[in-house]
Amino acid sequence: MLYDILIKNATIFDGTGARSFKSNLVIKNGKIIKIGEEVDEKSCQHIFNADKRYLCPGFIDIDNVSDHYLTLFNNLSCDNLIKQGITSIIIGHEGSSLAPLIKNTLISFKPWANTESLNVDWRSFKTFLNLIKEKGIGVNIGSLIGWNVMRSGLVGESFRNLSDFELKQLTILAKQSMREGSLGISFGFGYPSGRAISKREVLSVYHEIKKFNPLFSFNLRDESIGFLTAVKEVIDNAKEQKINTLITGFKVQNEDNFSNFDVALKLIENINAQIDKKIHFSIYPYDYTCQTLYSFLPDWLTIGGDQSIKNNLEDKNIVKKLVKELKQNKGFYKKLVLVDIEDKYKMLKGKTFEAIAKNLNLSIEETIVKILSITQGKIIVLNLNLSMFNIDKGIKNNYSIVATNGMSLGTADFIDRRSTNGMIKYLTTYQKILPFENVINKITGMPKEKLGLESKGYIKIGMDADLVILNPQTIEDQSSIQKPMIEPKGIEAVIINGQIAYNEGKIINDKLGTIIRKH
Question: What is the DSSP string of 324-349?
């Protein structure tokens, strides 16, 4: 056979944002080698008749959290992602990456996952990527390095500025990781381990690694009352050195703050009119958040890490102060749903804090303190506290890149719709609102350009053959918060690196992914 795959009669959206066109496409040796040419079907090993179907570049999930929940290790096939048309994922956001590690421990991931069962036999970024490559993965994977993890590995959870020597050590490690293939670096300002990160640290590491043209990813320090101040902080960091910036999971929480979203969008638009390297943000199409319960706690309680939190929760005077502070946001905590906790407390899963409080005959605030006290492991909560009106405005904005904020699903008990239907929810909702070429651009060409990927994200001759065939008439997200595992409809075939990964409702090959390294 001369050719591996022929896709004929397809309506092609090439990922650039240009209008669609109808054509044939030919794949050989993992690459797109012909577009628009007639070929003898007898010379093709596989043939797809894509009449009345859309052919798009494989979707790039620029904000994926398979590393945070450690599901990457028990589901490297990533089949739930492939079924959505995702062919590449980018991990390592919010200051947390699986490499490099200063110590052989994943203690920083404890709020999200059970870290005790995993054998950590790597430290360097290069060793980690090689490990994933050896195991084989279903989708292409690239990673940033997490500043929070590196910082905590060096100085622990202490809430203080780094010394010049400590900062130099971390910048050297970051530079080495960039040489080994990192796509950039992330900062989790909004987490306890990131509260002490300063502008000095951000600019110092940028000075050392800027020649690699890295992506700098920021999680906002505050998504509630201090939302605008947090956005201005990122803008201030970015504009001084013209940093290639991505704000991950861009959102404002709690109804009293919803009006600030428009102001934030205007701030980003105004600064982007002045700088060459634009500030973008990732956003997902759902009106809820999934966060660790620890992220809702006041700074003064979390300084010093797990042991400090444990000691504080055993002090009656401190608990009294905490309960008083929590009561100021009573309506906010009332909405929280406990979706994941240690197995011995699994009877609490799926219940609101209001319901748990009623069963325990405690106030909501006392219930939060009790749950924090009885477990030092993962506590994940779901919060229906976002504005769908704001999400619509965010997704329609010129500087938004749509992502799932989901994960590959393995043995984790915690499952939500973003992991099973995130891309499908986006496609089905916004194909009615935006031109479809723009819809596709936000999950293909835009992340490609933001990350500086050379061979992915576009349908062009010479590009990697990461492709999705979808039926615009049948594509549908049937899932719900209560039933997140209902699989999406409408994705008919997925091709990864020139080979068929998914076809006719079945995973054909779950080891087609490669490592995406910065060139």
Answer: HHHGGGHHHHHT-EEEEE-GGGGGGT
